[in-house]
Amino acid sequence: MKKRLLDDFTPVSEAAWKQKIQMDLKGADYNQTLVTPTPDGINIKPIYHSDSAVNIDTPSRGTQNNDWYISQKIYCGNARAANKKALNVLSRGAEGVLLDIPNPDIDLEVLLKDLPEVGLQVHPRFLDLDFLKKLHGFKPKAYVHLDIIHQLAATGNWFINQKSDRTHYANFLKSFQGYFSNITVNTSTYQQAGATVTQELAYFAAHLNEYLNHYCDNTKEHDKDIYDAFLPDRQAGAKAEMVTERSRSKRINIDTTIGSNYFMEIAKYRAYRILTKTLGNAYGIKDLGCYITATPSLRNKSLLDYNVNLLRTTTECMSAVLGGADTVHNLAYDAFFNKENEFGDRIARNQLLILKEEAYLNKVANAADGTYYINALTKELTEKALEIFKSIEKAGGFVQSLFEGTIQRKVKESDTAERDRLKKGEKTLVGVNKFPNAEAPLQKEYEILPFQKIEPRKTLIQPILFKRLAEDVEIEQMPK
C-alpha cells in the first residue's frame, strides 16, 4: 500500500490542542480571550475538532442535480418594457427571472410573450384569484410567491382582512396543481429590520407554523386536499424512504435576504431546511421540502464608498450558495440610490456567473457538509430558533404576537443593539465607520431617495420597517 504523507504525523486530540492553547495564553482566561459571543447567543470557539464534531443531517436542495440558479428581479410596471428586459437578461446569463408585479391590470400576454415555460417566479403585490387563473393559463409551470402573513408584517394590514385573505389563500393553494401554488414564507422583512439570525429562523418557523396549522392539520376535515398535496405522490412511485421534491405536488417557498456574517449565513440556510423538515414531520408530512430564494440584504449597504457594496454582495451570494439556496438573484451595488441601469444589473449578474462558471460553485453538492464549525453553528442556530419558536407558540402563535407587538419589539431591540455596536466601533462597516474613502463624498441628491421614508397611514398593527445601518452616519455627512 502506498504510504500517505499524513501517516508520518500523529493525530492531535482536541484535549491536546486546548492544553497547548492554555500554555500559549500564559495565564489569560481562555473564554474571555478566545471565545467570541455573538448577538445570537452563540459562543464561537477558536477550534472545532473531530473529537466533539456534531453530526447533522441537512436536507439537500430540491433542484435537479442539486444545482442552483441565477435569476434577476424585474419590476413589471410596464408590460412591454418588462418583457423586453426579461428576454434580454435571459440571453445574457440569467437562468430565470423574478417578476415583481405591482397590480393585476398588467397585460399578461405582452409581459409573458416568448418567455420560457420554467424559471419564472411571479411575485404579485396583491391577492387576486382571477389574475392567477389567467396567469396559469399562460404559464402553468411558473412559481407564484404569495404570503399573506408577510403582507401583514411588512405593511401592517392584510390584503383585505384576515378571514378573506385566509379563504382566498386556501383557494389559491387548492385551485392549481404542481408548484404553481405553494405556501410561501417571506423572511426578508425580519432580517432587514435588524432581527438576529436566530430570530429570523424562529420567526420563519412560527410564520410557517401558522400556515401548516391552518391548512395542513390532518386532524381537521377542511382543506384536507391541501394537506394531501404536500405528501409524497404514491402514484409517482415514490417510496417512503426515498422522498424527493419531485415526488410531491407542493413544497414550501422561502424568500430570504442574505446577511453579512459569512459562515453564520451558510449555517442559516442549512437550518432553514432542517426547520422545514422538522415542522413537516410534526404535521405528519415526511421530509417536507422547500425551495429557497435568496438575495443580498440592503441592511449593510451604504452610499459611502458604495463600490464596497460589490464586495459585500459577492460574499453574501457565495454564502447563500454554499448554504444551499436554490435560486439567487443579486442586488445591484446602486439599487437603493439609482434607478435600474444596465451597468448595475450587468455587474450583479456577472458576479453570480463568476461564482458559477469560474469558481465552480455548481460542481459540488452540499460543499459545507462535514465542516465541524458550520455543523456546530447549524445545530446551535436550529436549537436556539426552536426555543424562541416554542415561546411564540405558547403566547398564542405568530399572528397573535404580531398583533400584541411582541415580534416588533424584539426586532427593534436587536436593531438598536446593532446600531449601538456600529456607533461604538464594535461592529465594522468598511467605508462607513472604518477606513472611510475621502475621495468618494456623498452627493446632494440621488435618483432614488436612499433613506427610510415612512408614509403615515392607518394600520392594524405596527409594521416591521427596515432601515439601513449606515443611514444615520450618511445623513450626518450629507452636504448641506
Strand content: 5-15%
Low-confidence stretches: 235-241
**What proportion of the residues is helical, as a percent range?**
40-55%
The overall average pLDDT, rounded, is: 92
Give the number of helices. 17
Distance between the termini: 76 Å
* CATH class assignment of the largest domain: Alpha Beta
Which homologous superfamily in CATH is the superfamily of the largest domain?
Methylmalonyl-CoA mutase
Main sheet attributes: strand count, strand direction, barrel closure: 8 strands, parallel
Shape descriptor reads globular
Number of strands: 10
Q: Would you tell me the structural class of the helices and strands? A: alpha/beta
What is the CATH topology descriptor of the largest domain?
A: TIM Barrel
Rg value: 23 Å
The helix/strand series, from N terminus to C terminus, equals HHEEEHEHEHEHHEHHHEHEHEHHHHH
Provide the number of structural domains: 2
User: Can you list the strand order of the major beta sheet?
Assistant: 6-5-4-3-10-9-8-7
CATH architect. name of the largest domain: Alpha-Beta Barrel
Pfam families: MM_CoA_mutase (PF01642)
GO molecular function: cobalamin binding; intramolecular transferase activity
InterPro entries: Cbl-dep_enz_cat, MeMalonylCoA_mutase_a/b_cat
Organism: Nonlabens agnitus
